[in-house]
Amino acid sequence: MPETVLVTGGTGYVAGWCVVELLRRGHRVRTTVRGHGREQAVRDAVAGEVEPGGRLEFAVADLTADDGWAAAVEGVDRVLHVASPLGGSGGPEALIAPARDGALRVLRAAAAAGVRRVVMTSAANTASPSSYAEEGVTDETLWTDPDDPTLIPYRRSKTLAERAAWDFMAGYDGPTELTTILPGAVFGPILATDTIGSVGIVQRMLTGAMSGVPRIGLEVVDVRDVADIHLRAMTAPEAAGERFLATGEFLWMRDMARVLRAELGEQASRVATRQVPDVAVRLAARFRDPSLRDITPALGRRNRHSTAKARRLLGWQPRPAREAVVDCARSLLAHGAV
User: Where are the residues of the annotated region Disordered (predicted)?
Assistant: First the structure.
């Protein structure tokens, strides 16, 4: 039966597709924005895929403040907590504190309102070996060690936020249930050009901003499949109290570049397929481009994640990684983002 669902962070890449899929399936949707000025951007993005009619409404709330969350969850049946902090200056805590505290704000408000279930977006790297050198396949039973000093702030923030959510539920005695979704590298079509998340990798390839590709492998999952697993986890009785990995096929970035060249022809003429040696990436990160420091631990990483649980309990079936990459590129081109 159609329900009223709150989606946090409606301007975001994954959140936007969650809004679209909920509307397609007949639900009423309320989504949070950080200011009323962002409402029209969400409406415009969604309208390219589905006509919302009067079933889309907005609430103003921010992960960094308590204001607005009680009103945001009022009358809501379920919550998809997809929003993530933007980070910025201030060191690692600038990312960690908003992620952790924001998750707790959403959970507390949802529990107080008697929401039936909260589905929270985490990340596959919260269920990964701390050492990138380890190989093999891991599942949801593994937790990344947040105290590992080599973790980049993003991995630590996602791990601590999800841990805080489960710790909250451990001490909670009420009707609200929690499920967490752990996506891999999210690609696929965009709804708008202002918030594209990880899609920026494909954008940089198409524009020629990457003169070569590092030896980094990604578990590519389509944004439409990420939205789908959120909706499945939202209602499936088996999903209550569970974590679900939502990763796709493993592709080296060089393979992604080759797929783009093969499928898009002249439109991908600026895509570089030359692989940059690991030592060159490390030297550049140390002396020329500090922004590369966060990716150097992932050079050559081969650890993969199992999605057997999501397939078995939710019937989830992601599309091929190559389809996600090509559809992503075509969408960027169609939106004039290249």
Answer: 127-148
